[in-house]
Design brief:
The chain has 505 residues and is mainly α. It contains 15 helices and 2 strands. The chain has one domain: Ammonium transporter AmtB like domains (Ammonium transporter fold), CATH 1.10.3430. It is found in: Cell membrane; Membrane. Pfam families: Ammonium_transp (PF00909).
């Protein structure tokens, strides 16, 4: 039968022959073989489409590294530009090796216990029926995003070796353990646990794309780094009054923010992992994962837009200025907050999420100034504070229908408190916030404290005042000449010229 072509004449020839019983059997075998071949082809096509979708999502999340680099470069002073750019490159490079060697195994090595994975070190046994290379690439892009968040908190005063150590430790161990808890089917608090395993408060933690797993981890790690290092020289005067050390390029900040906005469409919708999946009647154009992917992109957009506008007017009332730096940070705070619930909330709820996230960021920044805490990119406040709000938001507004679509197989699962789902999901999410704070504080706080004790954390005051580019990286990224403008006038400008370097190890 395999040599026959699937056509009406071929089937008619089988049915019109003399032996009706034998012909019926032959016809049945013929039809079944063609249907089986079509089914296998359909599986291959579905796998190819889903893999392509996941790979392109991974590429978009990785492109966020460019956004981080531009945002960081614009948010620091010109004398530290090369330093912060290099740290962003090394977050990706060191993170790639350590996530390959250890991180992916700790996060998703299965079968394992609820705390940490035990298989797939250096991608051994990959590809496997559960994981392919595309899944590793996607998860690696998330891991280095967490490391990139932390680098912003300790910018402009940190020794280069400290960046290498913390980035490797964060991507190779600290972050993977957290992602195992909440995203691995073996994780003790995961919402997608194996059907035979019980769920935390019968719901598990619905942190769909990582407000807690990625943003809180990176933000809390940055908080401890900045706290242990202390503020930059000149950030507060002798009386404790804050003095703004503004970044040198609003252009780079806006460019980086738009790059991050673009990448978030891979970060949040891409976390569905697959796209060819039906939720309803076959042939329905709207009851499928393809529609849920689009809804996640819409909720992401609305949360960011709401947060940006709220920050714009909120800071205008506070300072009397329309400040692009603040608006860009507000935008990103909205994105960080919606990340947990992007797949399980209605678009109208995303607007509330962004509105509250803006005020959380403003409030965290006020607290930071009051307690003399210095974070050049507001990374701890933005990712830690807004990420924590996003975790709570998902527990309040998760819709039952969307929860059952994103996490099938558990009928009667609790959903958002304000959507009539009871308080179990909220209880699980409070536990998530507490354990992430505790774990990251115990690991990254101890690491930064140890680096300080070994004199490997902060640069000298002399080097900090001169700038890291000149003292550690061979010269300035560019030199600002107050006596010569780009057109030969005396208004000052950026010009390309050599500069003496004072290299230190």
């Amino acid at each position: 039968m395999a040599g026959q072509t699937c056509s009406a004449p071929a089937l008619a020839a089988l049915l019109s022959a003399g032996d009706r019983t034998g012909n019926a059997t032959a016809a049945a075998e013929y039809i079944c073989s063609k249907l089986e071949a079509a089914a296998l082809t359909s599986v291959d096509i579905t796998t190819a489409v889903d893999t392509t979708y996941l790979l392109f999502s991974a590429y978009m999340v990785f492109a966020m590294q460019l956004g981080f680099a531009m945002l960081c470069a614009g948010s620091v002073r010109a004398k530290n530009t090369m330093n912060i750019m290099l740290t962003n490159v090394l977050d990706a490079a060191a993170g790639g090796l350590f996530y390959y060697l250890f991180g992916f195994a700790f996060a998703f090595g299965s079968p394992s216990n609820g705390f940490i994975g035990r298989y797939f070190f250096a991608l051994k046994s990959i590809p496997s029926p559960g994981f392919d290379y595309s899944y590793f690439l996607f998860q690696w892009a998330f891991a280095i995003a967490a490391a990139g968040i932390t680098s912003g908190s300790i910018a402009e005063r940190t020794q280069f070796v400290a960046y290498l150590i913390y980035s490797s430790f964060l991507t190779g161990f600290v972050y993977p353990v957290v992602s195992h808890w909440f995203w691995s089917p073996d994780g003790w608090a995961a919402a997608n646990r194996d059907p035979s395993a019980s769920l935390l408060f019968r719901s598990g933690v619905i942190d769909f794309a990582g407000s807690g797993v990625v943003h809180m981890v990176g933000g809390i790690a940055g908080f401890w780094g900045a706290l242990i290092e202390g503020p930059r020289i000149g950030r507060f005067d002798h009386n404790g009054r804050p003095f703004a050390l503004r970044g040198h390029s609003a252009t780079l900040v806006v460019l980086g923010s738009f790059m991050l906005w673009f990448g978030w469409y891979g970060f949040n919708p891409g976390s569905f992992i697959t796209i060819v999946k039906s939720y309803g009647p076959i042939g329905s154009p709207i009851h499928g994962q393809w529609s849920a992917v689009g809804r996640a992109a819409v909720t992401t957009t609305l949360a960011g837009c709401s947060a940006a506008l709220t920050t714009l007017f909120g800071k205008r009332l506070q300072t009397g200025h329309w400040n692009v730096f603040d608006v860009c940070n507000g935008l990103l705070g909205g994105f960080a907050a919606i990340t947990a619930g992007c797949a399980v909330v209605d678009p109208w709820a995303a607007i509330i999420c962004g509105f509250v996230a803006a005020w959380v960021l403003i409030g965290c920044n006020k607290l930071a100034e009051r307690f003399h805490y210095d974070d050049p990119l507001e990374a701890a406040q933005l990712h830690g504070g807004c990420g924590a709000w996003g975790v709570l938001f998902a527990a309040l507004f998760a819709k039952e229908e969307f929860v059952n679509e994103a996490y099938p197989g558990r009928p009667g699962r609790p959903h958002g408190l304000l959507m009539g789902g009871g308080g179990r999901l909220l209880a699980a999410h409070v536990i998530q916030i507490l354990v992430i704070c505790g774990w990251v504080s115990a690991t990254m706080g101890a690491l930064f404290y140890g680096l300080r004790k070994m004199d490997l954390l902060r640069i000298s005051a002399e080097d900090e005042l001169a700038g890291l580019d000149v003292t550690r990286h061979g010269g300035s990224a560019y030199v600002y000449d107050e006596n010569s403008g780009g057109n030969g006038g005396d208004d000052g400008g950026f010009i390309m010229k050599g500069s003496k370097s004072t290299n230190r190890v």
